[in-house]
Structure formats: structure tokens, C-alpha cells
């Protein structure tokens, strides 16, 4: 974790950040969240906020979009509670709600919004400004709505996050 322009990441209670991860600048992690190996997160030209019990898995890149005349607020990166972000994802200046699973290798671009209770398939591409509605599976590049989620899938979204809380607690107990 590193300071950038006077701002250092702020970690909630019980957070885990793996030693090879780089998180720099204006970043806040909610309680019991975890950052896994080789994650790169830069809150340099805007800010990143990550909710409680959210896990960011190996090789994921988290970044933001700077403020400009064209876009006075830029695009921060906002990730809700109980979100599982799979391996090697790219989240750039977007908003993710609560209880979302982002499949491995997915890309979510500037200004995109993913509402609560969504499965985003592996390798999906969410174009700039696209909005994904709550309660559905989305797949493809560019992403399309595939079908409504079944109740057991919705229940799994929270369970996936809790599985990673348990795993990060195991890692913390080893340090």
C-alpha cells in the first residue's frame, strides 16, 4: 500500500491485502474485504471505494478516469458489498452494486453501471455507459442479457463473498 499525493489507502476492519498487490492513492476498503495476489489498484486521478466483504481476485486491475472539461467529475470506481471479482478482470471508472459476481477476465468500462444481484460471465465486455439490470445473467463481448437469475444463483452471490471472508481470515491467521 502506498501514498500518492498525500493520500494512502484506508482499510476497514479485518481486511486482507496480499503482499504482491499494489494499491495506491485514494482507495477505501470496507470491513472484511480482500485483495489477492498481483492486483493493481490506482486511486490516483480519481478515487476507488470498495464495500464490505468484497474480494478482488488475482491479477485484477482497478482504475479510474480523471476529471476533464468533457467529464467534470471523471469516473471514480465504486464497488458495493458482497462482490466477487474473478481473476484477471479490468474494472475502469464504473459502478458495481451489491452481490455481484464478475467472471474471470471480464472488462467493465467507464461509466458502466451494474445493479445489485448480477452474474457477469467470464470474458464479458461491458462497454462504456452500459447499464446492467438487477437479477440477470449477462454474457458476451459486447455483453448481452442472457436470462433472469434463479433464486439459488442469487443466494450464491452472498455465499461466494462469505467464502472469501473465510479464506482471507485463514490467510490473516497465518501471518
TrEMBL record:
Which Pfam families does the UniProt entry name for this protein?
A: Hexapep_2
Signal peptide residues are none
Q: Superkingdom of the source? A: Bacteria
- Stored Gene3D superfamilies: Hexapeptide repeat proteins
Q: Which CDD domains match?
A: LbH_gamma_CA_like (cd04645)
Tell me which stretches of the chain form a coiled coil: none
* Protein name, as recorded: Gamma carbonic anhydrase family protein
Amino acid at each position: 500500500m502506498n501514498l500518492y499525493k498525500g493520500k494512502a489507502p484506508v482499510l476497514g476492519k479485518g481486511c486482507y491485502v496480499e503482499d504482491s498487490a499494489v494499491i495506491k492513492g485514494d482507495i477505501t476498503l470496507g470491513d472484511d474485504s480482500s485483495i489477492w495476489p498481483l492486483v493493481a489498484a490506482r486511486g490516483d486521478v480519481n478515487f476507488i471505494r470498495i464495500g464490505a466483504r468484497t474480494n478482488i481476485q488475482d491479477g485484477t486491475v482497478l482504475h479510474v478516469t480523471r476529471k476533464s472539461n468533457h467529464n467534470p467529475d471523471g469516473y471514480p470506481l465504486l464497488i458495493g458489498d458482497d462482490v466477487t471479482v474473478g481473476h484477471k478482470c479490468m474494472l475502469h471508472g464504473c459502478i458495481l452494486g451489491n452481490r455481484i459476481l464478475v467472471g474471470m477476465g471480464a472488462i467493465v468500462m467507464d461509466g458502466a453501471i451494474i445493479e445489485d444481484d448480477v452474474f457477469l460471465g467470464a470474458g464479458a465486455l461491458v462497454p462504456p455507459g452500459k447499464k446492467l439490470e438487477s437479477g440477470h445473467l449477462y454474457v458476451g463481448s459486447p455483453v448481452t442479457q442472457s436470462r433472469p437469475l434463479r433464486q439459488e444463483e442469487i443466494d450464491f452471490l452472498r455465499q461466494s463473498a462469505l467464502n472469501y471472508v473465510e479464506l482471507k481470515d485463514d490467510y490473516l491467521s497465518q501471518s
